[in-house]
Amino acid sequence: MNPNQLNFSGGPGALPESVLAHTRQAIAALPETGISVLGMSHRSEWFRDILLEAENNLRRLLGLPEDYAVVFMQGGSSLQFAMIPMNFAGEGFGPPAYIDSGYWSKRASLEAARVRPSQVVWDGAATGYRELPSLDRLEIDPAAAYLHYVSNETVEGLQFAAPERMAPVPLIADMSSDFLSAPLRTDRYSMIYAHAQKNLGPSGVTVAIVKRSLLERIPAGLPAILDFRTHIANGSNYNTPPVFAIYVLTLVTRWLRDEIGGLEAMQRINQRKSRMLYETLESLGDAVSIHASRPWRSQMNVAFTFGDARLDQAFMAEAREQGIVGLEGHRSIGGLRASLYNAVTEGAVRTLTQAMESFCQAHA
Amino acid sequence: MNPNQLNFSGGPGALPESVLAHTRQAIAALPETGISVLGMSHRSEWFRDILLEAENNLRRLLGLPEDYAVVFMQGGSSLQFAMIPMNFAGEGFGPPAYIDSGYWSKRASLEAARVRPSQVVWDGAATGYRELPSLDRLEIDPAAAYLHYVSNETVEGLQFAAPERMAPVPLIADMSSDFLSAPLRTDRYSMIYAHAQKNLGPSGVTVAIVKRSLLERIPAGLPAILDFRTHIANGSNYNTPPVFAIYVLTLVTRWLRDEIGGLEAMQRINQRKSRMLYETLESLGDAVSIHASRPWRSQMNVAFTFGDARLDQAFMAEAREQGIVGLEGHRSIGGLRASLYNAVTEGAVRTLTQAMESFCQAHA
């Protein structure tokens, strides 16, 4: 088994083998142009076609209608955290509403508060960030500029259930760590964004999907680079985009479309992977504890511990000998974390669960 | 000759062959870790070492003392255009001074004007952007927050002479297209920045070198992601950095350090390349015209035309048959442009000059 397939990192995640093979070839020379992808101009016809294909693949995978714009940007979610209130919570709108459900959503709401007065409408601190609210049952001030949440909390391993109704205000979701892991009712959202380095490709590119009607509220006078309209009007080519990262993202969407067969198929694979891992963890009884309470367990990130740091370290060392890497928990909560992003195979998860079982037998 | 060596693109430019070879290997698996560079965590020891090496290589190449911070960011020069006035032209400072010497510096000053009142202290429009001022002879209001200029105008092929004296106000330079092409008196500057896709590596990463004393004037309350202190305090790892682009940048600085032997050596090579091309163009007499007036001709970008669009197209077609690509002039001024970034070899320039001579003989 290729060691790349045993990468459970929560940060820049694993990429499909066929994508890596294409990428390696493209560094030498793109079959289409004879030039390395690293030397291709962002104004070339080749790159125009790549941008178009990336957008079209996303539209097709998500069933996204034309009243949403799709743009590729730099700066990660952290730049979106600042740009969203700058663009969509101008004068005439009430303070935007934020759900604080974990490490990343808290960062989003803290950054928003630096830009505009904002409000936290649900705070997971009381549950130790082990539970989540129902999006359909939150009470939201209808004057709020928007409601923001993070659909999957990568650090704590929590994942929201999709909203069943339209929210009373525009709904904005950071889907960085579960984007394209399953089908999505995009019509519930006014904006969805996701940085690449989980399911989409290498770090350095962020996808923003924005309902065009939301653009009307952008105030005049923002710096051009921080105004979503700039990126949309210039087809993601206002300034030099991260050509390489967008190229790999395109390969990943091609893989999802042609090799996996779409998001329903991807969801079935992801369900099997997470079921396999959670069932193993439960079967180990008191030897392990899972951070998230059961109803909000993430299919993408499984945060757990063997009870103390010494045992966690011992397991990581054993796993590493079998080529299993990337299990370190996030520095903010410690413990272990297995991330099951799209490119992590069922075989890799099986190897991980077997390693867990052996470890617990040896240390029982 | 490898076709990659004949890439004269002004956008993402050519990369050294040895860097491409290492990069191809790293996509498969890094020798150090056995994992693809695209799957490496930005919190790994490996990446911490890469960040340190990138910084140290830059410090050594430039002879940069500790009172300058070095950070790697996203967003290109366009984001710097907005961040610089936000950070360094707060209350208590007069309007920052901008030199409008071409396409890119104009974009910088227009973006600054959206953020803070600013002033244009020299405007190249009257010369058709064919000439530049002397940095030492400009009259600058000593109350101006800073003086900003673009050291090399990529589009027009203009390059400033280095300042011989300290400017009366902090000097900030966008060196995106001539950074690391020659030694630099860094002590003349309060800030230098450069995005990667010319001499440094693939697009998606921007280097900012900031004198630490300048950080004291950053106003409170900026969004964290737009505050230089955030990136400096977190060692360029506040949010997920563009790991791949920074890795390739590190390889490029290693190549400059070990294979080229430093910036003096690089400068000699670049001088020979640009001399060869300008001498050929001059030898062709009226058949070609060079955009820039002689004293301000750039060593990095040579903008010229065979007189009309039909001839320019004909030359590009002939050149393409010999594997010479990337000669399209910038869309804003048309014509042709040969970019002679560090990785373009003397052999490639010779091939180009020979193609020019053949073309002129055939069309005389």
Please report the total strand number of chain A as a whole number: 12
Output the number of helix runs of chain A. Answer: 9
Biggest interface: A-B, 65 and 64 residues
> What is the residue-mean pLDDT of chain A, rounded to a whole number?
95
Proper CATH architecture of the largest domain in chain A: 3-Layer(aba) Sandwich
Catalogue the unreliable spans of chain A. Answer: none
What is the ordering of alpha helices and beta strands of chain A? HHEHEHEEEEEEEHHHEEHEH
Helix content bin of chain A: 25-40%
Number of domain modules of chain A: 2
Biggest beta sheet attributes of chain A: 7 strands, mixed
Strand line-up of the largest beta sheet of chain A: 1-9-8-7-4-2-3
Strand content of chain A: 5-15%
CATH superfamily of the largest domain in chain A: Type I PLP-dependent aspartate aminotransferase-like (Major domain)
Radius of gyration of chain A: 21 Å
By oligomeric state, this entry counts as: homodimer
Question: What structural class should be given to the helix and strand makeup of chain A?
Answer: alpha/beta
CATH class of the largest domain in chain A: Alpha Beta
- Looking at the structure, the CATH topology of the largest domain in chain A is Aspartate Aminotransferase, domain 2
